[in-house]
Amino acid sequence: MALVTRIPSLSASCSVSSSTTKTPSRKSNFFSLTPVFSIHCSLHSQETSPFTEKHSVERYERDSWLYKYQLQNSSFSSCPAPPDQESIREYDIALQLPKLRKLLEVLREKRESENRAQRRGPGNVFLVGTGPGDPELLTVKALRVIQSADLLLYDRLVSNDVLNLVGLNARLLYVGKTAGYHSRTQEEIHELLLSFAEAGANVVRLKGGDPLVFGRGGEEMDFLQQQGIEVKVIPGITAASGIAAELGIPLTHRGVANSVRFLTGHSRNGGTDPLFVAENAADPDSTLVVYMGLSTLPSLAAKLMHHGLPQDTPAVAVERGTTPQQRMVFAELKDLADEIALNQLVSPTLIIIGKVVALSPLWPHVKKETSVLMEAN
């Protein structure tokens, strides 16, 4: 039932070039984008649809990384110009547009048939936080909204177990982003939400953690409200709280940490050194929680120590926290980046830095100046 935004399996080599034209509309509507493609060799593919992948485990397999594999695969070796990732993305979207338009029409007809006596306004959009990964950390309200939705747009970090809770008549559309590939731009996500809400659908935007903590939920809410669409936010347990609780780390603790600060490892425009806040964040009496910080941790750690945070400050990096795939590396701040690289932690990984890390029942098992990699049972 879940959606795939991926290129279908190809049994012949090909190259794809594309351009995009826009038809006039009230604004840059997602459904007014008409990709024009020139496919220079024959494609033999199964039918693709926005609603074909049964579980997000298939999505993870594709994300790790089908596109990279396809671009390097020998099946493309006979082509003079293999498709780049943007061409593949646009090709995927072109394949999906007919079924997305059809779903829009079905929803419009449903609204009209159910409300002939009384005209109803546009549908609602719910921004729903699904927590750090464990489905049992969902709120009761989030579960109710998920099970009553017509359409759900979900991110990469939403777990398979959460997707299994979706109602039988709902449709799932994957709009996830990861380093190197965005299945949808943020502007396209805005337009999808708007288009389906205007058709009268109850639209749920599923996000990992909390939708308003480094989830761009505020941008989506602002855009939709400016278009007259009602937006309701269902908070989720943010990764900082959920993962810290899983490890027995109090984010604040009397006499140890009197505040907690959430940081993002990515600047607005990307780059490797967005950490201009390090000078103010180097407070030994505070806890730092870094989201999306794997690539920038070496720079952050160096800056924090330069501005006075002790080198032996306890720290932990947690990959896929609260899930069966959880892995943890405990280390002192000066060693953490090296140990993450040694143990090959991958995204999503949350980093917690501060004296409170040593309060975890797992910390005493770590000898000084060493690290320990722990995997969930």
What would you say this structure looks like, in words?
The protein is an alpha/beta fold and 377 residues long. It has helices at 56-63, 66-72, 85-114, 140-147, 160-163, 186-198, 217-226, 239-247, 278-281, 297-306, 333-343; strands spanning 16-22, 33-39, 125-129, 151-154, 171-174, 177-178, 181-182, 203-207, 231-234, 259-264, 286-291, 314-319, 327-332, 349-353, 372-375. The strands form 4 sheets. The chain has a 6-stranded mixed beta sheet, with helices on both faces. A 5-stranded parallel beta sheet has the order 5-4-8-3-9, with helices on both faces. A hairpin with a 2-residue loop joins β6 and β7 (181-182). α10 packs antiparallel against α11.
Structural topology:
Elements (H helix, E strand, L loop, with lengths): L15 E7 L10 E7 L16 H8 L2 H7 L12 H30 L10 E5 L10 H8 L3 E4 L5 H4 L7 E4 L2 E2 L2 E2 L3 H13 L4 E5 L9 H10 L4 E4 L4 H9 L11 E6 L13 H4 L4 E6 L5 H10 L7 E6 L7 E6 H11 L5 E5 L18 E4 L2
Parallel strand pairs: 3-8, 3-9, 4-5, 4-8, 10-11
Antiparallel strand pairs: 1-2, 6-7, 11-14, 12-13, 12-14, 13-15
